[in-house]
Amino acid sequence: MAILTYAQAIREAMCAELRRDPSVFFMGEDVAAFGGSFGVTHGMLDEFGAGRVINTPISELGGVGVAVGAAMMGMRPIVEIMFADFIATGFDQLANQASKLRYMSGGGVSVPMVVRAPAGGGTGAGAQHSQCPEAWMTNIPGLKIVAPATPRDMLGLLRQAVRDPDPVVVLEQKKLYKTEGEVPRGEFVIPLGLAEVKRAGEDITLVTYGAMVPVCLDAARQLAQRGVAAEVLDLRTLVPLDRRAIISSAKKTGRVLAVHEAPATGGFCGEIALTVVESDAFFSLKAPVRRCAGADTPSPFQAELERLVTPDASAVCRAALDLVRM
Amino acid sequence: MPQRALPDRETQLDMYETMWTIRLFEEEVANYFARGFIHGTYHLCIGQEAAETGVLCGRGPGDVAFGTHRGHGHALAFGVDPGAMMAEIFGKSTGCCGGKGGSMHMVDASVGFMNTNGVVGGSIPHAVGAALALRMQNKRDAVSYCFFGDGASNEGSFHESLNMAGLWKLPVVFVLENNFYGMSTHISESMSDTDLCKRAAPYGIPAAREDGNDFIKVFGAADIARRHAVESGPYLLILDTYRICGHSKSDTGYSYRGREEIEQWKRRCPIACARRYLEEQGAAKREIRERERRAGERIRRAVEFALAGPAPAPESAFLDVYA
Predict the structure, then answer these.
(1) CA contacts within 13 A on the Cβ side of B154
(2) ipTM of the complex model
(3) Does pTM surpass 0.95?
(4) Within 10 Å of residue A74's Cβ, how many Cβ atoms?
(5) Which of the residues B145, B158, B164, B319 would you substitute to probe the A interface, choosing the one with the greatest number of A C-beta atoms within 10 Å?
(6) Which residue out of A102, A129, A174, A236 is catalytically annotated?
């Protein structure tokens, strides 16, 4: 075992796959000599050379499109989009191209590529650099979407994403970059589509992912002090969704709170909630299924304002207690 | 000035046959659509056969190509089977994409025809990525052909793609089929400067503009382009041509183009011009007619194949979303 930060786990995952498979290469803005705008890819150019660690111009549409073309020819590109918000800048290549080429060709071509992007707020970067855009993409069949919350999950899922035969979007949480965690050494992957119970409990299930995982774990500690045992279910993968894990936990606790940083309306919490209520877990419910999500606003710049629109442990705790007291 | 390649007689006749194959294919698509065998829409390339054939006739064994929504000609000129294509348009399981793609999404990766695209400019970065892959895979004698129209040269994807291809000196032959209209909009209304060659200059890419309806000239210009792509880097070949037919099934092309202009271009039909050229150069009428007959036979068999094919199995609607 080793201790890595979340950011180091990203680099370690990419390096491990570039070492393992000569068809893997990496491209993004400022990723080569500069080492990436968050320092994540520092050293990769030295190890793998300019042929496999490629600086692109500021061209999200072109960059993702080039990766699509290379993937169709049997390469396995990893593309970094500097901020997940800029997925919007090149969205045609994910929404209309990468996701659909296998299907439209009747299986004639495939697009094994990874798009990884730092998402989320909490760094004072403002509305265009702080979004969690998973809900833009979870409704596009053909894409897989992964949102790791720990260094271990990042390492295992990103490695698996590179090996996946389909296009995978890996949403990183920039405010988790410095968090540390234990990671296994050597060959290690985590299959996509498997949620993980990060903390077991019998009274209420907090279904969550990404930056809200540590928030929910914090909330669970606060709830424990009030005699409420919360289960924290980390989805880890959004598409394909581990519905069985959600339903099983809902049946066990009878109370479900969906938690994410992205705005509430149209957010992934809807998918989580419907997964519960359309299943026979409905009959185990002791309270309505609710959500604790970001406010329906863009992210304000000023720190206190931003805190107001973002769920924190207290907000999760309050929402959970409301359900427990019903 | 690089020496212009001239196709030999046999190659000229091959090109003539390919152009006929495209023309007859397109006419049958329109015919069967009108009779209710095909649904959806179609975008025919009638009038643009020489531009597409003249370029792709000179392709190398490892080359790949990317076409447009008006891509039947690109696919046929690249060697995709007309039967598989017609069956695809008929929505049959025997289609090249199992009926899942249709007219705008033709793929036959087994011959290197990677995609036609329903999004204008959508495949331009793909062609650049494919060229990057060819380099990474050490396929030094292969190029990536990228077809698009005048309209697409206003898309951001065009500029981003040419910029990267030029920067990295990738083996891409960009072919801009200028048929003067982006659907109903004349190029003089969509760009301030219609000197299309200039569009390559900012990206360090050489460009040439040629008469796209002269199959001999296209062949020669495309040969220069391909050799440049193999030896030095990307090339932009602009071919002036004209879509004699309408934009799509619901458009005749007459509402936004003058009758006089259309008649002028009809007189310059690339196939009629090719035939005149062949006759003037001494090709036997018998040989010419034989090539026409062969083209007709291929299309007749393609339609037969399409008609005979079954509809896709219902479960296929749910397959190939993921691997």
Answers:
(1) 16
(2) 0.97
(3) yes
(4) 14
(5) B164
(6) A129
